[in-house]
Structures are given as structure tokens and as C-alpha cells.
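User: Can you predict the 3D structure for this chain?
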Amino acid sequence: MIAPLRQAFHWLANQPYLLLSLTSLFWAGNIVLGRAVAGHIPPVTLSCVRWIGAMLLMLPVAWPHLRRDWRKLRGHWKLMVVLSATGFAINNVLSYWGLQYTQALNALLMQSSGPLFVALWSLLLFGVRLTWMQAIGIGLSLLGVLTIILRGDFAALAQVEFNRGDLMVAGALCAFGMYSALMPKRPATHPLSLIIVTTAGGALLLLPLAIWEFAAGVRPSADWVTITSLAYVVIFPSALAYLCFNRGVALIGPNRSAPFLHLMPVFGSVMAIVLLGEKPELFHLAGYAMVIAGVFIAARR
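Assistant: Here is the predicted structure, written as C-alpha cells:
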């Protein structure tokens, strides 16, 4: 029984397109959840508990790898701090904060710009330029995202008003863009070792803010909504999604991985159709086709 499971995990670990698609699925659910619990669970507390829980969940399995890789990770402590801050602390808390103030339409519009932030940081930090095919793919998938979000009516784009929540979401995407661009520079360690160190770093960076938030009287409600929400964010968009994302970036690089972020609004609209009973429309099909085509074009060598 163990051997087939090991073979299945080995196969999955070498399927970057599937790993990155799962990442977008889990993160799409995180956006829906973050908006749903806005005002119910404070954003810093949600972020801090998310990373503490993810670290504790993975630690028993990761411990042997962490012991072996600790010296190498400690030798790159500055990079570990930056990865923890950008990919886990700043990105996460700004996203949850922003979802308290912005509309779903605005948040999805901002999310669709994620690959552009990755490309910008790759250019600024390492001089890595987009290829023409990557640029065309990102543009095509962005057009598909807009088609879905705006329900095929691009005139609605002129009516979108941006607020402080949008600026927070944009800041979160900017931070995550730096995280994605820096990932290829990580030390050669086991993925579990890296994720344990960076989740622990993100939690430590957020802990003083979480204590301040609690002392100020901004506290989560003690009910099943809080418990189930925390369980979801710990397991799926935290532990599983980051493992999938880190492995996907390691296999095909940040610029080829970034267009998969455009799948998040696609998965989000599917969730709305399945879970909320919304009726599928022609613009859904057109948008899906453009997103998938754009991801395929940009992710090719």
C-alpha cells in the first residue's frame, strides 16, 4: 500500500501544470472564504493562526528533512526572512485586510494582475525579461479573466471604483510577486524544510501584530464558523497550496508559473455556479477558453 502511494506522490511532484492548477484552486477558495469571514475573524489573527497551524501540521513529517537542511537554511537566513515576510506575512495580512473593504469584483481584478508583478520583480531583481510568447499568454489569459469578471460587458470596467481595500490587495500581490521571483534563488533543500522555516518566519513576524490586535479587543468569534474557516485555511490554501506552488515554480520557473494565477477567477466563478447556484453563461465559456489558452501559451518553453 505504501509503495503505490509513494509512486503516486512522486508522479504528482513532477506534474507542474497540475500542481499550479491545484494551487489556484485552493487560493480561489481562500479568497471566497476571506471575504465571507470579513468582520468575523480579525485579519492578523486569521493570518497568524493560519501559518502556525500549517507549520504544526507539517512539522512531524518535515522534521527529518529540517534537521538535515537546517544548517543550509540558516546560512541563507536573510533570504528566509524576505521569503517569510513577502510570501507569508505581508502578502497574507494585506489580502485579508483588503477583503474587509473591497468588493469581490475589485479583488478579482487585482488578482488577475499577479503575473505582471512577478514579471516586474523578475526584471528588477535579476534582469529576467518576458518572452514574447509569455507576454502574449499573460495578455490573453488576462483578457479571459476580465471577460468572466465583467460578465462579457467591458463597459462595466469604467464603473469600477477603487478604495483602500484595493490598494491593500495590490500591495499583497506586489509582495507575493517578489516572493515568486525570489523562489528560484532558494537553497537546494527539501520542499518541506523550506515551507516549515518560511511559515514559522511568517507566523513570528505576524505574532506581535496579532497580540496587539487581541489586546485592542478585536477578537474572533468562538463558534463553528471560526473553527471550520481556520481548519480550511490551515490545510488547503496554506500547507497544500504552498507546497504545490513552490514545487511548480522549482520545475518551470516563476514567469512560466505566474499565468496559472489567472485560473483563480475561473475557479472562483465555478464555485459560484456549483455552490451558489449561479447560472452558467456564454461569457463563462469564452473566458475559460481564453484563460486556458493563455496559460498554455505562457507556460510553454
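Residues 22-299 form one domain. The first helix runs from residue 2 to 12.
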